[in-house]
Batch of 2 targets.
Target 1
Amino acid sequence: MTSVPDVAATLDASTLVHRTRSFRSVSAILAIVFLVLVALVSLLAPLLPLDPSSTDLAARWQPPSAEHWFGTDELGRDYFARVVYGGRISLTVGILAMAAATAIGVVVGLVAGYAGGRLDDLLMRFVDFLSSIPWMVLVIVVSVFLKPGLWTIIFVIGAFSWMSTARLVRAETLSLRERPYVGYARYIGVRRVLVVGRHVLPDAAPTIIVAATASISNAILTESALSFLGLGIQPPMASWGSLLETAQGSLQAAPYLALIPGILILLTVLSFNVLGDALRQSVSEGGA
Amino acid sequence: MSAQTEELVRVDGLVKTFPLRNAWGRKTGTVQAVDGIDLTIRRGETLALVGESGSGKSTLGRCILQMEEPTAGTVMYDGVDLTALPRSERAAHHRSMQVIFQDPFSSLNPHRTALQNVLEPLTVLAPGDDVRERAIEALAAVGIEGDAVHRRPRAFSGGQRQRIVIARAIAVRPGFVVCDEPLSALDMSIQAQVTDLLLQLQRDLDLTYLFITHDLSVVREIATRTAVMNRGRIVELGPTAEVFASPQHAYTRHLLDAALTADPVRARARLERISARPEPIGLEPDGTSLVEVSPGHVVLR
Amino acid sequence: MADAVTPGPIDAPADLAPGDVLLSVDGLTVDLPGRTGGRVRVLEDVSFQVPRGRVVGIVGESGSGKTMLLRSLLDLLPEGADRTWNRVMLDGADITSELPRRRLPAAMVFQDPMTSFNPLVRIGAHLAEVAQRFQRVGRRQATALAREALAAVRIPDPDRVLTRYPHELSGGMRQRAMIAMALLARPELLLADEPTTALDATIQAQILALLRTLQAERALTVLIVTHDLGVVAAVCDDVLVMKDGRIVEAGSVDRVFAEPRHPYTRTLLAAAPAAPDEPEPGEAAEGGDA
């Protein structure tokens, strides 16, 4: 007879929760395939015969063809190469900014949630304070003091988008802290850092993963927006966002110049979100 | 044997209040979860603490262990006043005072193996080169052996998880174990097995139990003395057989009547009696002190 | 109580004329999607009869399928469940083909009243909604019916309770309110899924006594699912013992408890609480002191 826990688990899911079967769903597979593809191409770019910088003014605004897969841009450069190198930048910013934001957010959230009391109040007021500053103003002010560029933008996004992660993690921690096995660890005298790391963090992982993937999506979108506004990546470096900005001028003549990076941003963000969902499902199923 | 060494745990005037908060987090009043308890637990006995939800029995157990800080009163363990000790010095006594919780599903860290869960108190409270052996020994004592110890809790049934929880409690060789509703979440047939295990361990390891429960049938089997709690106070306390045979307090009688039994004739008769009764009134533990009605048997009057 | 194909001793329906059986189910089988793919069979060829006006207990441990049995009657199975049966008869008429379109004249009381009520809606609104839906009356009359229902379940001060939110009531009161809600649907069959498991012993006894009283007052037929033999002994006339998705024994409570035939039934009874006290001394000392 099939084991009892099997049935119990199905019942727990209840009729109200739509069960996606983790990595077995079509969208999850597509998302992973897409992201792997993008990642591979981005990583291997230097090894591929791509030249994003040589201009050819005779061949400007060529539509996509066998020779130039994505056509050419306003300076006759191979757009496929431009997009690939732009993707490297966009993804780099996304991942690094996410890493920074998640790290800060998790630490703040865990400390605030576990310690409670005054420390919690203090940290949360700080979070509220940062969240209430209009973000654009923040960015503009910061960019006055820092030269616009790759590291500036990573810093700006990372330093000012950790607040929602912190709130999420804090909420998780508050409830996880009440679990009997956490109470037991405290009772027998396990050091606080260990209690949090060993007993609280693993169960907060699903939440953190969701927050992280949302963070990547957010970072990519933000970078695109900033670059589009001219505050982010500066030429000659390009990211998908800055490519969008440049493409503005040629929307009538060469719509593909805007469509391609735009669609790529959309697909990438979408894929990260779907992946995040699937990861969260599988991690939480692996738990209690 | 002097009275001093016979008493393992002594509680005097224990009070625990919790603040009541409204939706905005503001304090609107207090709740007396434990309202002045005097209690002694003798070495080697099993004292059952019986009551319904809200009676304060779990809170009392936690206060004795010092998992919660009492608002007032003292707790003496083996002659040492725990309430007077600073937090840092209490750890040594926690080795001797262990706990078993109600819900086997949330009492163990789901991401660590059974062995790792049992190892934890050993490495903190009784470190040594042989911690691993001792952990394995404890697991074997409850019937979990071989490769099974490397499995995570989700691979075990409810009864088995509870056994792991028990193993974790006895691994450090405690003297006193608070069992907080250890059987409530288990199927009936498993309950009997776990009860037997607890009794056997008590014999083998010379344990003293504080058995907190709402289930009277179990109490009968394993408790030497029984204390009945209602609204934070003890309303009756005495040798189990006596309390069951001649309950003195109205609340105790009410509890006994409400206990269902697997005898249809008797069960139906009880139900008739209960439906004939008006809404239970006057069960508030009015009364100010515990009065002795027979040797060792006290009632709140 | 008759039972067609289970591998266990069953009682022949002593003198059960067809009109005496309210509900008869034959060959119920339910599959659920398993956690790791594949399917889990939670009910295997279950057949039973529910005589009119009786209280039938369905008892078993976790995983026996007892809750699924109840839910399959009301089509409340989890997503992906597969339910098949050979025949369902209601009051002597074969309604197999009419289900699931047609509803059984049944109402259900759940285990945890907290999750069965919408925390943002007052009790009065909950009850009135049911009354309006099932008794086709207007708002005002529905509220009057709601008040009546609360009184029927012996809730003191029904007018006040009507205006309360679920979380403002105690566990016992909530359960009574849920029973009242079920009654407003005017069911012939009342299904109760572990109705007292989450309650304290004294409240449990009161709720069970209430169920018995209501059943007698309104000639209800009641199906109670429980893991507690004490509940069965106290309230039920007949019992179905389930294990691993099958009915292993069925019969009147008196017979089954006195002479259990299936080994599993014997195991269950052996593990059940014995009478905590012998001659009812509580009775003798009643009225003795404060």
Target 2
Amino acid sequence: MSSISKETEMADGTPAADVHELLRQTEQAELLRFSTAGSVDDGKSTLIGRLLQDCKCIYDDQLAAVHRDSRRLNREEVDLALLTDGLKAEREQGITIDVAYRYFSTPRRRFIVADTPGHEQYTRNMATGASTADLAVVLVDARYGVVVQSKRHAFIASLLGIPHLVVAVNKMDLVDYSQEAYENTCRDFRDFAAKLGIHDITFIPMSALRGDNVVERGTETMPWYDGVTFLHYLENVETSGDRNLVDLRFPVQYVNRPTSGFRGFCGTVASGVVRVGDTVVALPSGRSTRVKSIVTMDGELPYAFPPQAVTLCLEDELDISRGDMLAHAGNVPKVRSSIQAMLVWMGESPMRIGGQYLVKHCTRSVRGVVRSLSYTVSPRDLHRDQKESLELNEIGRVSIDLLTPIPCDSYARNRSTGAFVLIDPLTNGTVAAGTIIEREVKGDEPVAGAPVSAPVSKNITREGTLVSAELRQAALGHLPATIWFTGLSGSGKSTIAQELELQLLQRGVKAFVLDGDNIRHGLNRDLGFSPEQRSENIRRVAEVARLMNDAGLLVITAFISPYEADRNQASEIIGEESFFEVHVDTPLAVCEERDPKGLYAKARAGEIKSFTGISAPYEPPPCPALRLAAADVAVDELVAEVVALLAQRDFISRTS
Amino acid sequence: MERYRISTLDRLEAEAIHIMREVVAEFENPVMLYSVGKDSSVMVRLAQKAFHPGRIPFPLLHVDTGMKFPEMIEFRDRFCQEIKADLLVHRNEEAIAAGTNPFRDGTVKCCAALKTKALLRALSDGGYDAAFGGARRDEEKSRAKERVFSFRDRHGQWDPKSQRPELWQLYNARISPGESIRVFPLSNWTELDIWHYIHRESIPIVPLYFAVERAVAVQGEQLLPLYGQQLPAEAEIQKVWCRFRTLGCYPCTGAVPSRARSVVEIIEEMMIATKSERTTRVIDHDQDGSMELKKREGYF
């Protein structure tokens, strides 16, 4: 490209720049990848064309071709969009269909632009362009302000975790460069963006057509604007803090064994820094060793960081292959057999609940089954909907069971190990893009009734473990789970739970009952029975059950847990895949007649306030894993039903 | 943070190495298209880096039209021997024997027979399921839309409207028997990046890229090399200081006036260049969207 010489030429008036200076600049220039989205109407292609032209990154013959094509296609003015719309269909129809990549540079930075279409039917292309971007440019037409399309772009940028957002308020020339129009647009956009959690937003008023505030300041047309130009922002925005240099994740891509004496693990450092001598853990095996050397053709390195592609040699001969991941001991990712994720559906045919897909994550592809769709989100207004399935370009939250567990992080923490795509094994097409959500801390939605849904301190991180879930399972002989009994007081929860515990122990299953009353004597002695305190009671119990599950135990809980929202929260905390909700469905009349602790009598007498079934509501679970009609059935039979369920789902062995 | 800074060139290098390792890990039988040009030279160096200290674990395939510059053939054989690469050469002998040439048949038909057909034949004969190419997205508009892993059907054809979405660095390598993937590890490189890298890594290139005083046929702005081929009647033979900015078949590759005799001088020259590199290639602008049409049919 000729950009640099021209820049220098303009700056100091000398015709030829020093080539050695150019080489030095190129050696130091950082790369910034940004995405734009928009259609021909809001001037996106004109903006990119303007940038390329003003940075002198368009060659004469390319410009001549644009002039020629503009005439041939009967465009009134020279259409800079023709520089970027490369496919024949796009040029003829005047639309952008696919993601196109553009390249330009200034003395400070190199830029890769992912130029994407903006209409709803191209949501998948927007997501594609956004996936690797450091920065997103959202175009807003000053005449119309913030419209559905601008919201969609901002939402997708936030969904794909782009750290910086520029709102280009374009076509200012068509609103007479009105400051008021500009500020109204900024305010509307901020209101919407507040819901998205994008922190770094910059607004720039401009006219791409006239070139105001793109590369050159529009001081005559917009004297009231004292911010930077678009190009100045692109050249200076600080992105070095965007990489995760804390959590070492090294997905093993290829094992290189050219001779019997050399065994190297090739891969790209996804995050963190690896040094010679570091103790690393291989996942999922959980075995650890030390880094002997970091090999490249240009010599060994003392350390490597993202996104360097290197070869690691290890001190011990561990069985490590493609798809495994190396991490620092003490900071390992969770190995999960089920994930919660946001999906952008990209396939022509809709998502199949219960359908099997290939999950490509880092350097590994595993089979996965989409178990449920919690909700869809409309990118236009963030409205949530309950739907049967995801269709092309729809976005929703799903739960996926993995047939082989994978080491992964949340996308919010790690853009490499938190991302995956779904491949349809029948068509081989890429049908969805997914971002993993940390299920413990649901940052994206308020948790109903939870007084504290995230740690109070921001300085708390999670510690890892050397023991994988598989290893623990192999040691214990069964899978951990939580059997969550819910039902009225006196319905028989505790009786069934205790009998179940006994029978499971006799089968060699490490089972343990968490009883409501017992917990309220200790851990939860500070809690009463208001809805808020009931919620907190359940949250703490769920956290304890989760810890016990992590320790490999099968937990049985016996709590009234009257609220649907609280039980859902418990399921979230414990993990849907190991949470079995069992409704002990005994009619109120029967419970009241039994009244083992004399509580109903006291409630009727008004001595106990907020008593479930009498003076407080009970919300029966709409679809429990099991419903026990417990009014006049022997305890043994009820217990047998639960045992059968566990055996059927392979949590315990089928024979005792 | 300074310690963890990475330059554009190093990022591009890392990305290309990642792509190559991904291909070797996921495919049974990959091959690298080796055109002997500067981009191929860079691609081969990256392959050496990706699999160091081992050898490049796939063969290099050159599709020879019989109209390549003799200097290219000589360089090819010497270079491949030096780096101990497996070189395969494929020619459409039938079309060459039939005297196919761009003057008699036109560039479209000539390319179809000697390049596209020969390439598809070589790929199917070899049973290759993945083929690396050195194409860059900045070269031409239809290439700007191409994926890094670009799917080809059983007939080696490209359908630009139904490309697989490609997100993050997660490349979909799944294919059915007979289908294949073309892989472009240099997708995000620009012409200047290529030269800069050749300079930084001291990568050997065909001497035709450097300027000497050559006898050429001058026709308007075009400088056509003399290799005994048919020349336009109005062309005039002159000695001109010139070099080749891209290398293809001699009948379709023009030289540009130049005095650049080293890589640094070439970079210096590029800084004041006002024309894109493909203007010296006759085949790109014979019809609107001509590269897209060729690519749909299987051209690289």
